[in-house]
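Per your request, structure below.
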């Protein structure tokens, strides 16, 4: 006799999806707003974006895809009254609050690539010719990604020039498939931005990519290596993938083409990452890199895998940027400095951690100080 099909799991999946998507849809979205008056403190951010106008609102940098890389520079006013890890920004429903919200203090668009490269070169010369490039993830609009770069730069006191690559995410919780296609579409634009950094004189380029932005980053690095741009690859002095939303088998295939991987090459993961759990429900793909617990699957690759599950904040999808305790730990141990300075022994300062080495991969399980 044939067994009746098991319907419990699909029903449960649908219920969970509806609940999570409903909550996400209610969250206010970030908006660009100018500061009215002088800023006490600012962070300068250079931006390259392949976003075109928003298909619904017509906003200049929205969810449509632009074959042209648009180049900009911003100064972001950092709000004086906020806690470490907090990021607040104006929304369409609220009036800008300069005490608590990240706001724009200055904005410049570049019609010519040469002018952008010249200003970037000047900024690099003032900052040791080092650059930190942030690539946002799924369901992020232009303003949110821009403010996030400033928040990370401020909370971690990041050295070097801050650069943001903004790719055309739909910025909607139901836009997962659109965003996956956009991440592939955006590879050439990211390569162009890295080439601008090379021309402008950057000697050290550290890439920090979040979530689906990690997939975009790996595809771009693969593309650069295959095209024989070794001089550009040699400028990349470190890669940090935060909660990477990539299938493990796909990551391995990408990494084999990129070899040798830029060093250090670091993955921040959490087995409690609810956003990646949701990703597995949507895609029905279980082996996401940001959820990895068994590093033997990666052992032949020269990586450092850092488990942040003990510091889960919110949905656990961006602990490194949102957990005050984790930010404090990383600041205290010098982990961030080690990453940015490409020190291979930086993990020795992580006194509140369990450290396991499996072949070429180092697995660090972080714990709260005193834990």
């Amino acid at each position: 006799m044939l067994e009746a099909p098991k319907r419990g799991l699909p029903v449960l999946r649908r219920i969970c999806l509806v609940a999570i998507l409903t909550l996400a849809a209610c969250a206010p979205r970030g908006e660009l707003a100018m500061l009215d008056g002088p800023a006490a403190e600012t962070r300068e951010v250079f931006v390259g974006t392949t976003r075109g106008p928003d298909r619904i609102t017509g906003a200049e940098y929205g969810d449509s895809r632009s074959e042209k890389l648009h180049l900009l520079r911003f100064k972001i006013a950092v709000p004086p009254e906020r806690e470490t890890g907090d990021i607040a920004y104006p929304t369409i429903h609220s009036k800008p609050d300069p005490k608590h919200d990240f706001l724009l203090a200055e904005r410049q668009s570049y019609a010519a690539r040469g002018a952008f490269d010249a200003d970037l070169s000047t900024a690099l010369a003032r900052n040791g010719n080092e650059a930190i490039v942030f690539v946002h993830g799924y369901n992020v609009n232009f303003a949110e990604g821009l403010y996030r770069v400033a928040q990370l730069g401020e909370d971690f006191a990041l050295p070097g020039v801050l650069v943001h690559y903004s790719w055309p995410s739909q910025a909607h919780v139901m836009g997962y498939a659109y965003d996956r296609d956009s991440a592939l579409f955006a590879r050439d634009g990211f390569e162009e931005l890295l080439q601008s950094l090379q021309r402008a004189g950057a000697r050290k380029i550290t890439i920090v990519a979040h979530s689906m932005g990690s997939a975009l980053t790996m595809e771009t690095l693969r593309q650069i290596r295959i095209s024989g741009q070794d001089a550009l690859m040699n400028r990349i002095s470190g890669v940090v993938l935060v909660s990477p939303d990539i299938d493990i088998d796909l990551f391995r295939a990408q990494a084999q083409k990129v070899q040798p991987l830029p060093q250090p090459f670091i993955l921040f993961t959490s087995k409690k990452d609810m956003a990646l759990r949701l990703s597995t429900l949507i895609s029905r793909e279980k082996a996401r890199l940001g959820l990895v617990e068994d590093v033997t699957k990666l052992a032949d690759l020269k990586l450092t895998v850092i488990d942040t599950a003990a510091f889960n904040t919110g949905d656990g999808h961006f602990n490194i940027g949102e957990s005050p305790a984790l930010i404090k730990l990383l600041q205290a141990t010098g982990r961030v400095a080690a990453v940015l300075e490409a020190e291979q022994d930086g993990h020795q300062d992580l006194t509140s951690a369990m450290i396991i080495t499996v072949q070429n991969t180092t697995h660090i399980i972080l714990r709260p100080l005193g834990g």
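Confidence is low (pLDDT under 50) at residues 1-9, 18-26, 339-346.

Regards,
D.
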